[in-house]
Amino acid sequence: MSGGNPIGAFPQTPVAGLKKRGPAMAQQNDPPPRAYTNNTLPVAPQQGAATAGNGAPLIPLTIIDAPTQRFYAFGIYVALLAWKFYDWAQLVEENSESFWLFLKWIAIDCVFLFGLPELRIPWLELSQPFVVVAFFAHAVFDWMLMFNVGLPLQTFILGFVKVFYDRELAISEHNVKLSNILHNSSLIMGRQIINILPEGSAVLNPEQIPFCLGGERKIVQVPMYFNATVPIEVELIRTDLESNQQEVIKLSRNQLREIERKAKSQSPEGTETIVQFDYPAKKPGVYRLGKVLDEYKLEVQRSNPLTFVVPCPRAWVGPAPSSGRCIGDLSDLSLQVEGTPPLKIVYSRTINGRDRSFHFQSLQPDGFSSPLSSIRSSAVVSAHDDDISWARSQRVPVGLNESMHMGGDWQYSVDEVHDAFGNIVKYTSPADDPEGKPKPKHLVQNFFVKERPQVRLHGCDLRNPLKVAKGDSKELPVRFEIAGPTPDDTTHTLSWQFSPIDTLTESGDHGDVVTSGTYSAKNAHDRPKISAPGLYTLRSVTAGSCEGEVQEPSSCLLLNPLEPKLTMRSDEIPDTCAGNSIGLRVDMDLIGTPPFTVRYDVISNGQRRSEKLNVHGLRYQMELIPRLAGHHKYIFTHIGDDIYKGQRLTGSEYVLEQDVKPAAAAFIQHSTSKKSACLGDEATIDVILLGDPPFTLEWEIIHDGKRKQHKVSAIQEDRYQIKTSPLTQGGEYTLALTSVQDKRGCRNFLQDELKISVRRQSPRAAFGQIEHKRRAMAVEGSALKLPIRLTGEGPWRVSYTNLNDSSSKTVEKVVQNDNDFLEVGGRGLFAITDIWDNQCHGVVDPKASVFEVDWHPRPELSVALSHGINRADGQFVVDPVCEGDVSGFELDLKGTPPYHVDYEVHHKPLQGSGSSLSRKQFDVVLGKASIHADTTKAGTYTYKFSSLADNLYNSDRNFQPITVTQKVNRKPAASFVKTGQTFKFCKSDQSDGEGIPITLTGVPPFSLEIEIKHHSAAVPEIYRTPSINSNSFELQIPRQQLRLGTQSIRIRDVKDGSGCHSIADIGSPSVQVQLYEAPTIYPLETRTDYCVGERLTYTLSGTPPFEVWYTFDGTERKAKSSTTNFRRIAESPGIFSITTVSDKASECRAPVDIVKTIHPMPAVKISKGRNVRVDIHEGGEVEILFEFWGTPPFEFTYTRSTNARKGQKSQVLETRHDVSTEHSKVVRASQEGTYEVVAIKDLYCAFSTQQVDEKNKKAQKAIKYQ
């Protein structure tokens, strides 16, 4: 391995020590030539080869070896980085930024990074891309530092830098460490330690904390306190609660060693303190201290209060017979409570999710007496009282027997139980349990309270009995209800009493024969069926385990009516003239429950049909009169009533037959009994004749109470058409057939008639009105709807024509509504010529038969002539204006507003070409419109109005364009010859020197307005020049118009001889004028008294860098400041006075007189500046001496802390504040602790060493000075 090439990514480091190896070693290590051809890494260069070739280090390795060169390069980089962080810390302290430092560090990083590869140090031969990337990374880092850009670790880096460099310039012009000045431990010295010697004692459970055992609590820790003693023997006496036997318990050696170990750990310096030891009690009983011996085997003073360790109280819910209840039932629940009485139990009752808490207290057995009943403290129990039976655990039952008045889910749950000593056992509810575990079953009892059902009869009582056919059954109309939402299960059981109909008493009540019935219904709509006639009375209803309520009506009477029966008698109906039978008259007697339905079949001349007859009473007479001659047979087949349906009729008595030859008859053939006719028209009526011709027909027409008889004879056909005379009067006519006679000569009376309704007037037509007149205006070429008014029955056919148009034809239009429109498309005089409704011809109202239609006039436009507007050569000319001025003219418009105008604006410049054309438009609602003239460019403007439209007409083909011209003069201009240049002036120099050159264009003479804007002024000042008669000008601004510093001079306004003026835009070119004055210095604070360690801060006005001359304690010094801030640390007391200041821009030194007094920090010593320890007995006092240095009065704050012990931090017990007008003060103290001063203040300065811990803020008081 030693003879091969190095293994790894880097070659071996060349060292100068290789020359010490011998030639034999070199030959032994030289590999064969073939091995060189396969090597990927060259052998590290030797000493002899260091000077050969271009790859050798710039500094030979014989002078400085490679590791040392790398160390020097790394050291230089770290030094540069520290220097860079120092500059950055200075910028952060001054809250400023520096472009010069940024350039400096870019140059330094560039030299270092690009120069490092030129040294060709092994392992530091950086590639060119890597160097470029590293340089850019350092440049970004330099930018973030020198321009004070926030860094993620800025606070950490500043703190890290401050650890190594925390120095600032002091008044002595030396760097001092501020922390050494601020944290001067010699200002507060000394402390007074007071130790109170203790007296030994022992006590068991002094706070009388109650304890109990039971459940998961197997052991309780009973506290023992030993004051100023370490026991070597401790006895406890336990009295059993059940047997009253006493047991002596001695603490084991391990327990005594634990007490001793605690005492030593709490008093490392040998001082005695209070030691607490928790004795693990595993058995219930009454505990008290028996005997306690200290290390000298002397009995320690002790108090003997009794400590009761009793079984923990507990409670549970007694078993309930069932979890189901009905509304109104009692809960019948028992709670069992066990513990030391008197007991208290807290339970909750939840009804449908609504929780409410209850409790019972003073639960104890009958005759029980306890010393704790009146005063809740075991201190009343004497240690010599042998009777402790009252402390035994006893069981007390608690009965809960309340009415359950609401349906739903009820839950009783035990929440807490208390015993007489105050022991509390809480049972966590599922809502409070993190895991949501339910309570054990013995602590909870759930009930589901059901609503009680209600039943009553609906639609049946003693006055409205149920009727059912014999042998049929019917549902007993029971209505089942449950209050609240209907449950899923509505099964229930009904019971009733039944008495047959023949056993009822005379009053309708149940007789001697009474039977009971029950029915189990599956749901709320399931009802029992009954069939036996009698009285049914509901007795009870039960749903599940809940018995319900029977409401009225509860009784129902069921009857079986008689079956329907029919008895008939028939007689022939003879013809009074010929004596022949023309039909049958049938008398019917019915038995049953109306209404009745009788069905029968009719067989006439071999044709059979079925008929139905409804009879609403028990008697009925019907006539069977056929219209056709022949044999007719009537077979009555069925009868039914309201109870029995379709009872079949059998027997010959239900069959009737007859041979009929009917008398002559006549009928009007019309689908309805009413007919309409027009006024003055004739009416025709068709009549059908029955019998043997020839016929003689008589009829009459009745109108307005007058009858007119008509008769026609020798009618040979069985049809005849009656034609009336013209009906000239409106109203209702009645045509009644009175008699008919055939060849047998029998004259038969007729009753058929027809109503003829004759209109009282003919249909009429007339034009309606538009805005109370029959004349309308319309847009030329548009359609117009003319209103028309019609009377009659639609639809109507209206004919009209245009009287002003000889070529117009008559137009006929069908109109559906009586208030409709006729649409016309032209203008003229339109007349209605004819009118028809759906049946009758009408008349046209001559007064309203004509309607006139005309066109609206087209819009007009003209230019309003006023001052400044003239008319010449057929066009309008507006007076010339200046470029950018406001100008315009008005237009007059006629027509129907709003108007729309299109026009062109043609611009021709004053010189050269470059004409432009733009098209514009506007809308206006009034008869006048203002046109704002375009004056943005100099030249001649021509406005040509080419199109006009109003609300009615979009365009007018006959519109004549209107032309308006106006000349716009060019604005004058003024500019600085040297725009952007800075001119420097001195405030004290008032002579006329060099001015600011200005060039002007326009027509002389000119006048200028100059704006002077100082960088610190919100409102600029205005300076106006006198008249200028040339196009060049040297501007001289009076010094009283300028302010110190830099101001921007801008030409605001220029006016020439043509009356035009030009206002410059905001941001127009300007020049800078700097007015200098001697620099000044101002203190940032108005106070004159300072303390050692404070910063004296001033601000300088002028151009940095500054030189400041000052005196301190009679010595004059000069300081330089590269910024406008001047700050020094007051390292020692004295008088600090600034006398002179100068800056870079001004050569004068400004005398100043700023005097500050630096006061020394106040100092205090307690107990002559030493740590003094004093031991006193309880009740003794110690004098504590406080000595002060400074300027009275003194305010000081001192604390009393616990005496420090090994391994423990001292705790502040109290903080006190005091005042002294002298240089010393004595304070008496009698409490144990360490007294030391934490803050001191005199008339001018204050100093504090108190460091308040965030965790103990609430226990300590902060020091505040007014």
TrEMBL record:
One of its GO terms (cellular component) is nuclear pore transmembrane ring. Residues 560-662, 674-743, 881-969 form the Nucleoporin POM152 immunoglobulin-like domain. Transmembrane segments: none annotated. This is Nucleoporin Pom152. Residues 452-556, 763-849, 1169-1250 form the Nucleoporin POM152 Ig-like domain. GO terms for biological process: nuclear pore organization; protein import into nucleus. PANTHER family: NUCLEOPORIN POM152 (PTHR28206:SF1). Residues 1079-1156 form the Nucleoporin POM152 ninth Ig-like domain. Residues 20-40 are annotated as: Disordered.
